[in-house]
Amino acid sequence: MENFDYTLIDWSRAQFALTAIYHWFFVPLTLGLAFIVAIMETIYLRTGKEEWKRITKFWMTLFGINFAIGVATGIILEFEFGTNWSNYSWFVGDIFGAPLAIEGIMAFFLESTFIAVMFFGWNKVSKQFHLLASWLTAIGASLSALWILVANAWMQNPVGMRFNPDTARNEMENFWAVLFSPVAVNKFLHTVSSSYVVAAIFVIGVSSWYLLKKRDVLFAKRSIIVASVFGLVMAIFMIFTGDGSARTMAKYQPMKFAAMENLQTGRKNAPLVAVGILKTRENDEHKREDFMFKFEIPDMLSYLAFLDPNAFVPGITDLIHGNEAQGIIPYKNKMEKGKVAIDALREYTLAKKANNEAKADSALTVFRANYEGINAQGEKERYFGYGYISSENQLIPPVQLTFYSFRLMVGLGFVFIILFILMLVSVIKNKLENRRWLQYLGLWTIPLAYLATQAGWIVAEVGRQPWVIQDLMPTMAAVSHLESSSVMITFMLFAILFTALLIAEIKILSRQIKIGPKEGGR
Amino acid sequence: MFETLSLLALQQYWWAIVSLLGALLVFLMFVQGGQTLIYTLGKTDTERTMLVNTLGRKWEFTFTTLVTFGGAFFASFPLFYSTSFGGAYWVWIAILFAFIIQAVAYEYRSKPANFLGKRTYEIFLFVNGALGTLLIGTAVGTFFTGSQFSVNKMNLTNISDSTISRWEAPFHGLEAVLNMQNVALGLTVFFLARVLGILYFMNTINDDAIFARAKKQLIYNAAPFLVFFLFFLGSVLMSSGFAYDAATMQVSMEKFKYLHNLLAMPLVLIVFLLGVVLVLWGIISSAITVSTKGIWFSGLGTVLTVFALFLVAGYNHTAYYPSTYDLQSSLTIENSSSSHYTLTAMSYVSLLVPFVLAYIFYAWKSINNKPIDAQEMQEEGHVY
Q: Cβ of A103 and B103 within 8 Å?
């Protein structure tokens, strides 16, 4: 176990985190702004007013600038599964590769074809075809999100497959189970709706800047109306999909759920900690967080997780040490089963090579019995991945980061809803121009929107550590066979390049905003 | 429909799809080739703007095809993905960097306050054009010459060091440049991309000065392209190749393997020869007449030739990604593919491809119905 090169694993994780975080700076705006632009262009076609064309073209220019860097930072993520997570690519490539290929064929071509019509077709195609191109670009962008999120959801809740000991990998058995798993559906809907909210806030924020500068007032107010309505609808939808995501997490990733709530000891009628401050206690059998302060809502966690205020919600210690009354087996037992499964796989492979069918059959029986099982709730649970784990403490994700990120995300989500309502009411009552505080709020909510969406991904990804595939493969078993110095160098290179590109994007966007809609955004 | 096909038939079908995507990618790298010629063909700012803009309307297709090529390879032959990408790390990372900088270069080049300056983005385009083509060509060269890696699925059961695919050369892929055949293919792709870029400019830009310079450059680039292509082709056809026994799956060296493959698959040979003739016809007709249609002949010819070469590398019991470190670790379409179920599911998705090609063709036609000229650069609302 000590032979794992943890420096390599940490740099590989850091590089993936870095590139994913940078990519996610740009994707939400692309996803949402594409729809906002399409809506604005629809209004232009409906009303025939040139002002709406001007509005559309301005936001389209910002969309194009952001789209380019989203593409630039996105290509690395696809190939990184191979370059840095080589074992992962084989172990689950049979399932994971398919959504990536479908993403390319179905979504990327749709997006890249019609975005060219969007930008270069104004004077070359009919108005109706141009509008269709704008909508198809928006749909293509969200479709590409669908497939990569299906792939990500499968990592959180691997379904629709079976391990093949002859090929030493998991193989797909049911494509529809992968596509329509509850985790995938909730993840997709929650992620895209939150992205639409980010884009709506961006439009409101930029428009608020114009109001603060007392220029392009009509343009700004019209943009705010579209963005507020779009944002409000999507934010409400986001709450429901977020609720669904949390419930699937409680069911399929109980440790992540417990870490997110810092629920150390499981209980019935579990309260939801609305606000809390944590303090680490080091001199314990496992590192644990205590609350220095908390404000709880009684029974709420049980209700949110299982729609039953009396439901038992397992805590971190229940999952580590087991809870017989609740039918939870300790991690230690899972680790033992995992090791037995791995040993049996080795025996099976050797027996096969030696053409010893009897020994192979017996090894396979042992393997099947220890690869997975059925828990007390009648759900399938896997043990194989636990065989790579040397200590129960490795199975606890960073609690503080997950706990705070979740609260930041949820808290800001409600702030955004209030902002949308205030903006909408103010603009309808024609009072927005006089409410400078609201204009400032609109402007300064832009960075908060980005913070919230990144926090969401931190909950999703940090919260599921150490798993790259839940219960089947930890990150240390997934990594490529490289020198840690190589990955450290590429990490630095990505950090420098992406930071330079981010600065370039912000500067270009800022200048285009300063130039304003009068110039058509050029 | 696809369910009834054998696993081998599905593997062959998917090798053909991956080959087609690879062939389309090489054709679409006219964008990269064109990017290396912006300063050679464009002497004024307006001329360079025309060159950049005619490429800028197509760069995303090359980029998307690359991404789809990667995704399709991952889905259909995941062991290649894990072995090559995780092993030849530096080559693939260098290729990825070359494409990352391209993706922003068009949109940011002429925008005010672009932080790095117009010239930097033009250098990005040049680097992408030169490195992207050269490295992809060199990497594909290893499909015929082999690499130093090992694959052992038993490693998964070694809980402290479980990586299945390991690269056994210290430079993680960079050693490919030490092989002349690989480099020759890299240079072939580089000069071919430039030839295609020139033919594309001749077809899409209505400017006499650019046309005259492009015509001159066509000869300068076609000559080295032919030299390197013939060197690569000759050396591959005359060298030993990596064959495997269909019954035992044992890999062994076979003299003139790739020549045998061409002769054993007459249809592939015809496609190959037709492709070469079309590429040459596109070049010759553009050099000696005032035709602007050369890109269509050479483009189609490129697709057919590259498609046939990929089939030669993977069909007829040939290891398409051979290991010179351990012959038995070599990847074949049979030992590196996805399962029957996944290949079947993916095959249904592949039926969308004609539909995708149809709408791409329609959309291209709708915005590219007349060549770019200087006037359009001043009138157009969105200029790179």
A: no
Q: Inspect the interface and report whether the beta carbons of A105 and B350 lie closer than 8 Å.
A: yes
CB B65 within 8 A of CB B28: yes
How does pLDDT run across B186-242, given as a tens digit for each residue?
999 999 999 999 999 999 999 999 999 999 999 999 999 999 999 999 999 999 999
Q: What is the pTM of this model?
A: 0.94
Number of H helices, E strands in chain B: 17, 4
pLDDT of A522 > 50? The answer is no
Q: Which of A78, A110, A511 has its CB closest to that of B113?
A: A511
- Which residues lie closer than 8 Å to A447 by C-beta, 6 or more apart? none
The residues, any chain, with a CB within 8 Å of residue B248's CB and separated by 6 or more, are none
- What's the burial of B149, exposed, middle or buried (CB within 10 Å: 0-12/13-18/19+)? buried
Q: Which two tokens stand for residue B24?
A: 């389309």
List chain A domain ranges.
Answer: 24-257+393-519
Contact B345 A98 (CB under 8 A): yes
Q: For residues A326 and A315, what is the distance between their CA atoms, to the nearest angstrom?
A: 11
Instruction: Residue A467: name the closest of A194, A227, A253 by CA.
Output: A253
Q: Is A108 in the B-facing interface, judged by CB distances under 8 Å?
A: yes
| pLDDT score of A519 more than 60 | no
Quick one: which of B6, B3, B2 has its CA closest to B334? B6
Cβ-based contacts of B165 with chain A (< 8 Å): 86-87, 90, 481
By the 8 A CB rule, do A38 and A501 touch?
no
Instruction: Please tell me whether residue A280 adopts helix, strand or coil conformation.
Output: strand
**Any CB–CB contact under 8 A between B349 and chain A?**
yes
Question: Taking CB atoms and an 8 Å cutoff, what residues of chain A touch B342?
Answer: 94-95, 97-98, 171-172
Average pLDDT in chain A: 94
Cα atoms in the 13 Å half-sphere on the side-chain side of A355:
0
d(CA B182, CA A8): 30
Q: Tell whether B66 lies on the interface with A, counting CB pairs under 8 A.
A: yes
For residue A62, give the chain B residue with the closest CA.
B107
Distance CA A224, CA A203 (A): 7
Query: According to the model, what pLDDT value does residue A520 have?
Result: 46
Q: Residue A480: CB partners within 8 Å, gap ≥ 6?
A: A12, A83, A84, A85, A86, A87, B86, B87, B89, B163
Distance CA A249, CA A256 (A): 7
The backbone torsions φ and ψ at residue B338, rounded to the nearest 5 degrees and listed phi first, read: -75, 175
* Token pair of B330 as six digits: 């070599």
Contact A486 B103 (CB under 8 A): no
Interface test with B, best of A89, A118, A499 (most B CBs within 10 A): A89
Task: Give per-residue pLDDT as tens, A36-53.
Answer: 999 999 999 999 999 999
- Residues of A within 8 A of B82 (CB-CB) are 82, 86-90, 93
Helix (H) or strand (E) holding B251: strand B251-254
